[in-house]
Amino acid sequence: MSETDIRLDKWLWAARFYKTRAIAKQAIQGGKVHINGHKAKTGKAVRSGDTIELRQGFDIKTVIVDACDDKRKNATEASRLYHETPESVEKRKLNAEQRKAAAAGVIRPHKRPDKKERRDIQKLKRPGNC
Fold first, then answer.
1. Residue 63 main-chain phi, psi, to 5 deg
2. Where is 91: in which H helix or E strand?
3. Does 37 have pLDDT greater than 60?
């Protein structure tokens, strides 16, 4: 690796996508990170201009590497290491709206059940209560 190259797990950690390098490593090994359209390995060298696709929870982000740094800094400086593609931003917004719309129809109780209500629920769940 040259001086401008950096390990993928270190770059993801420095860019603040994952809280620890261990979590970044697990995400890479779990197939949640792709670099330039290929499944990545932890020690893969990241260079300026590479395209990284990563999954965080429900979201899939596509980012382009602008700079390489192995030091973890504050969020504003970390955001200078990459930029997210406009298609990725639109897709994430659309998915978030769809999740909100799907959750809107769910009726949630206004409070947690108390002891008596819990016992009644457990009675209903027991086998033989048809």
1. -125, 155
2. helix 86-104
3. yes
